[in-house]
Amino acid sequence: MVLSFSGLCLFLGASVALAGPVLSGEPAGFDATPVRDDPRRNHVPTDTFMKLLPLHRVKTAPGPYDWLALHPEEGQDFNDYVSSGPVLPDDLHRVIYIILIGDFDEERKRIIEETAEFIEAYFTLPVKFLPPVGVDVVPAAARRTHPQTQDRQILTTYIIESVLKPLKPEDAFCLIGFAAEDLWPGEGWNFVFGQASLPDRVGIWSIYRNGNPHEGVEARKLCLLRTIKTGIHEIGHMFSMHHCVFFECNMNGSNHRRESDARPVWLCPVCLRKLIWGLSKDPVARFEALLDVCARLGLEEERAFFHDSLKVLTAPE
Ligand SMILES: [Zn+2]
Ligand SMILES: [Zn+2]
To answer: Residue 109 in contact with residue 179, Cβ under 8 Å?
Structure first.
């Protein structure tokens, strides 16, 4: 079981602190050495990912309360990833399932649907919804009203063990639950943004603290981006990807809301290489799909980034 707080997840490691721009050469985490010859995988040349480097920023040194200051991690380069024998989708387990738990208003439902569209383009895997379930699937013993804040909360461990695991379909790569209510993981905790069981590839996240999408265009966009960023980060962990310490990247750990809000939706070239290798997909087609989905969802900054990435990858030599 991996606990997630403030959108964070726990991994072991030693200290690292990188700073300053690196736009050429071979930065940390970008080992160009070819790895094992796996005929099932489409080996995209390392040069493809190196081309993207000028678009990315090296991870800045953490502030005192940031994730890397409190949870020093070594990072996982591409070779570490491949040799770890990562969990990957296969022909029999390739659907990302989403289930809504609790009462979502129409706007929040739409935000989850848009998040699902983004996830589908990002992981190039089919995304399907299971029929939603009401909060009454959670018995009184696994619910509470927080004694100080009065937030209504449901117990993550109950959801994982008694709701998500039994409902996970045979062809699932993973099952992600989105809860409308706040979550808490057990004795001693005030709240948690989400929690996952990586071995079971199920996880639950709440949109309760993602802001009120009814407060205007910017508030809605923030709520959507927070929901997307958490979803793709956690599904990245389901692919056995560890936190990224090399670049500003969606796979960066985060320790508080400001840090998770600052995290981009995109992957750095190191993490992108892992994903593309794991999926055995064409990175150009993936960027095209992301460009389309960002245009549909009004995510201009993200659309521009994917546009630039595509331009770099498809530029004549
Ligand atoms: Zn994480
Ligand atoms: Zn990364």
So the answer is: no
pLDDT in tens, 189-204: 888 888 889 999 999 9
**Options 234, 300, 301, 317, the catalytic residue:** 234
Q: Catalytic: 74? A: no
pLDDT digits (tens, 9 = 90+) for 63-104: 988 899 988 888 999 988 988 989 999 999 999 999 999 999
- Ramachandran area for residue 7 (φ above 0: left; ψ -120 to 50: alpha; else beta): left
Domains and CATH numbers, the chain: 1-79+243-281 (no CATH), 89-238 (3.40.390.10)
Helices 217-238 & 106-123, crossing angle to 10 degrees?
Answer: 40
Q: Cα separation of 229 and 289, whole Å?
A: 17
Distances (CA, A) of 276 to 107, 116, 246: 33, 19, 18
**H or E segment to which residue 143 belongs:** strand 143-145
Q: What is the DSSP letter of 215?
A: G
Ligand that comes closest to the CA of residue 73: 1
Ligand at minimal distance from the CA of 49 is 2
**215-219 average pLDDT score:** 96
Q: How many CA atoms lie within 13 A of 109 on its CB side?
A: 9
Render pLDDT for 36-64 as a digit per residue (tens, 0 to 9).
Answer: 545 556 667 788 888 999 999 999 899 98
This prediction's pTM: 0.89
Amino acid at 33: T
